[in-house]
Amino acid sequence: MNYDAIIDQYTAIMGSKTANGVPYGFLPDKIVFSPAGYALFLKDSLIKNYVYFSAALNNNKEGTNLAKPIVYFYDMEVIHTPYLEVKVGGKDVQAILVDSAQAAMLVKASDVEVFEGRLPKSVDREVIMAMLFNVAVIFGKAVAVITA
Amino acid sequence: MSRVGMKNYKKYFPLTSEINNSGDLTKRSQMLEEMGKTALTEMALVNPDYAKEIIEDFGGSVGGSLKEGISARALREKIISDGGQFYNALREDLTLTNTQAYITLLEQMIRGDFLAEVDKIMSLTYVNDDLMKSTGGANSLTLNIGEPTEAAVYSGSGDIMYYSEGINKIQISPIKIAAGTRIEWELSKYAQPSFMKWNLRRISNALQRNVAQTILSTLALGSTLQ
């Protein structure tokens, strides 16, 4: 994980072509970091410089925020989540770049539903929440992964 | 509905007749949404019983629209910000046999909590709700995914190629995920709103973890650019 790796995968998605040599036209618009990946991203010297200079440029009278959170990286929304815990090829995934409009489809068969009732042979009640859904990747070339 | 209830009902819903007479569905849903956001949330705080009565009384399509019209997050925030009052009412509601309105409020609170957290991860995908609308007993979807074809200039007699590389079929069957928690009688008896809220939040956290991990793992494993 470093600055160059992100740029490489960004351009890989944009450069994806069909077997006929026609560009798909994918445009990555979100980047998701795992905690380990985010740490490496923030420690990259180029990113540190970006944070340094952007904070200096945005200086105002509202007080000092020493390191502002990174909301966008180029035109990709930055999402930092602890839930990205998966290995690809035996290596930890540190970031995913995705064209969210085309890459995958979340098929919802139900909304989040809540059930509530008394537990049998008890005075206690239980609350259960359930959901029917699944996810499928439609265009594998609209998603790129950065591994450790 | 009692006379007092009716009085409050009029006070909070002065536009009911106007809405019912309005043929314009867009306008009607806008008004219902406005009502849901302002009147019902206020009413739920002032007196949860009236809010409950109104949800029950409306029933059917108008009730459905009304329920849909409420911003779950707004309602949740209002209710949580005044947790003590709401949970005191909740303690009483737990003893009722007909707890439909209570469940509606509970559901909106938990669902609002869930969506607030997992929304960002769900936004990584295109959401398809075809199976939610399915009434024919379908329990899986077959998606025909065509590789994009090339647009070209055709002469009058040429055939247009729709999918020059054929079609991939992907079958998706939904998986059921569930999480639950126990609310001890003592919790409601002694009205411990903060702890109960914390306890309920654990369900939506558990569901969030599962949904987020499923989406992210699928994306990572389905990627061909590794």
Task: Provide the fold topology.
The complex is a heterodimer of chains A (about 150) and B (about 230).
Chain A: H1 3-14, E1 30-33, H2 35-43, H3 45-57, E2 72-73, E3 76-80, E4 87-88, E5 91-98, E6 104-108, E7 113-118, E8 125-137, E9 143-147
Parallel strand pairs in A: 1-3
Antiparallel strand pairs in A: 1-5, 2-3, 4-5, 5-9, 6-8, 7-8
Chain B: H1 3-12, H2 16-21, H3 25-46, H4 48-58, H5 60-69, H6 72-81, H7 83-93, H8 100-122, E1 126-128, H9 130-133, E2 141-146, E3 167-172, E4 175-183, H10 185-189, H11 193-222
Low-confidence stretches of chain A: none
Overall mean pLDDT of chain A: 87
Number of strands of chain A: 9
Helix content of chain B: 55-70%
What's the alpha carbon Rg of chain B, rounded to whole Å? 24 Å
Determine the CATH topology of chain A: hypothetical protein PF0899 fold
Q: What is the name of the CATH class of chain A?
A: Alpha Beta
Major sheet attributes of chain B: 2 strands, antiparallel
Give the overall silhouette of chain B: elongated
Q: What's the number of helices of chain B? A: 11
Q: What is the number of domains of chain A?
A: 1
CATH architecture of chain A: 2-Layer Sandwich
Q: Tell me the series of helices and strands of chain B, N- to C-terminal.
A: HHHHHHHHEHEEEHH
Terminal Cα separation of chain B, in Å?
63 Å
Query: Can you give the mean pLDDT of chain B?
Result: 65
- Element string of chain A (H = helix, E = strand): HEHHEEEEEEEE
Distance between the termini of chain A: 7 Å
Derived structural class of chain B: mainly alpha
The global form of chain A is extended
What percentage of amino acids of chain B are in beta strands?
5-15%
Query: How many beta strands in the DSSP annotation of chain B?
Result: 4
